[in-house]
Amino acid sequence: MPVTHVNRKRQTYFLHEGRTKTGKPKYFFSKDSEGSLLDAVPDGYEIYENPNAQVFLRKAMPEIITTEEVVAVQIGLRKFAPSQNCIVGTKGEHIEVFQAEGGHYHKMLRFTLTDETTRQFSVDRWCFRGSIDDWFFLDCGELRKLVEKYCRHLGKESFFELM
Fold it and tell me: Using CA atoms, how far apart are residues 74 and 128, in angstroms rounded to an integer?
């Protein structure tokens, strides 16, 4: 049975194996159900769906962020930015908040684990200044307090005044 993944938009993707120019294996997802399909995810890899519902196979990443921390951000978004269409993702030591605009998700906030012992975080907001797209540091502290303080600005002019 081939490896499949149904993304957030309910589209089914199939895992394929190809070869690089040097003959090494490469893996990719496609909506095409024909070709060199794989029956299992290769060891050391995981299926990843990005905020815009594209599906990839990537090297497995260690889980640094806890489920409880991700849930705290999700609950905070529902409470402090209920009318905003946001999703939460993790990447290494980061919890990222993406907000939909015109059907496409954009980076907005990033909570970064700065101390694994005390579980302290820093928070950054995405800067949309033409060619200087980057993160601006805002604050650091306890995750729930940062979520309460900064998620309320999503979808408002005040977000762009945060610095």
Answer: 23
**Which tens digits make up the pLDDT trace of 110-146?**
999 999 999 999 999 998 876 566 899 999 999 999 9
Tell the residue number behind the tokens 């579980």, with chain if given: 119
DSSP 8-state symbol, 74 = H
- Alpha-carbon gap, residue 92 to 157, rounded angstroms: 30
Domain positions in the chain: 4-59, 67-161
Tokens of residue 53, six digits: 């519902």
* Of the candidates 88, 63, 90, the residue with the CA atom closest to the CA atom of residue 151: 88
pTM score: 0.85
Q: How many whole angstroms separate alpha carbon 126 and alpha carbon 54?
A: 21
pLDDT tens for 12-29 read 999 999 999 999 999 999
